[in-house]
Design brief:
This protein is α+β, with helices and mostly antiparallel strands. It has eight helices and 15 strands. Strands 1-2-15-14-11-12 form a six-stranded antiparallel β-sheet. Strands 3, 4, 8, 9, 10 and 13 form a six-stranded antiparallel β-sheet that branches. Helix 1 runs antiparallel to helix 2.
Length: 298
């Protein structure tokens, strides 16, 4: 269990191959750094797991090596050359994801050139088709805890949820083909769940040279929990059950029960769950803005 004068937190995680032959999900639980990550790898060279672990481990390294300055900014060199300072953790996460995305994209290019050394400029159309089919990438959802704040970084369709006051709320919006159609009214949420393109994502780390990540900063109001998961869980287990399981007293058991529920419901993908519990001494308590007095976590 880690924390500060403001909050105390602990976490657990479980990952399972689910309906796949190998596990391309990655996760990080680093209580010392206050950093928690889930990444769902996919694509080229049959190395989705390379993309997910490359992204997760590099993000962890950057967060561990970023050093606070006296003016509360962050020094980033030599981690992120050319960006010597970031005014806050929002910008740190943004810079980090952009750099990781570029490095993974460049790795993809090198692998493709190695696989197809005889292709020349006249084969540009063929090369582009091969790139789309063979390039590896990954989703990313992360939680960074700093000074009473939670920083959520998100790319793709892995999700973050907040559990508090016997309610669960989805903090991220999927970057997916069906989610875009739900937003513009072309599809209903019910239609999206069974649509043939429900697994097509519109953003991923490493697939394109440029990337826009969603980054949100939230104030912590313990006691509460944050759930990070791959779509192997959220795609088959509804929010009512996530809420019920997410409030179990033992974090590890809660994670295991969620994974088991996904498998029982026929999960066809890898299933990864990270659950983070945020607490605070009662004598420092205050009311959560959404409801009344805090209650004990079950």
């Amino acid at each position: 269990m880690k924390g500060s004068k403001k909050v105390t937190f602990k976490a657990a995680a479980v990952s399972d191959v689910g309906g796949r032959k190998n596990n391309e999900d990655a996760f990080i639980v680093n209580e010392d750094a206050g950093l928690f990550i889930v990444a769902d790898g996919m694509g080229g060279h049959d190395k989705g797991e390379v993309a997910s672990w490359f992204t997760s481990e590099n993000l962890e390294r950057i967060i561990k090596e970023a050093t606070p300055l006296a003016d509360n900014n962050l020094t980033l060199d030599p981690i992120l050359p050319g960006e010597s300072r970031a005014p806050d953790y929002d910008h740190l996460m943004e810079y980090a994801v952009l750099v990781i995305n570029r490095k993974l994209f460049e790795l993809n290019e090198k692998l493709l050139e190695k696989d197809y050394p005889t292709l020349n400029a006249g084969d540009a159309a063929l090369m582009e088709t091969l790139k789309k089919r063979r390039r590896m990438g990954t989703t990313l959802v992360s939680l960074l805890l700093r000074g009473g704040r939670a920083y959520i970084t998100h790319v793709g369709d892995s999700r973050a949820y907040r559990i508090a006051n016997n309610e669960i709320s989805q903090l991220t919006h999927d970057h997916s083909w069906v989610e875009e159609r739900v937003r513009d009214g072309t599809l209903t949420p019910e239609q999206a769940k069974t649509h043939e393109k429900r697994n097509v994502i519109t953003r991923s780390v490493g697939f394109n040279p440029e990337l826009q990540a969603d980054i949100d900063a939230l104030t912590l109001y313990p006691p509460e929990r944050f759930l990070l998961c791959s779509d192997g869980l959220s795609g088959v287990v509804d929010e009512d059950e996530l809420l019920k399981l997410g409030q179990m007293h033992d974090l590890r058991t809660a994670c295991a029960q969620m994974v088991e529920a996904a498998i029982d419901r026929g999960a066809t993908d890898n299933v990864t769950v990270v659950l983070v519990d945020i607490s605070k001494p009662r004598d420092e308590g205050e009311k959560h803005p959404s409801q009344g007095d805090w209650t004990d976590t079950p």
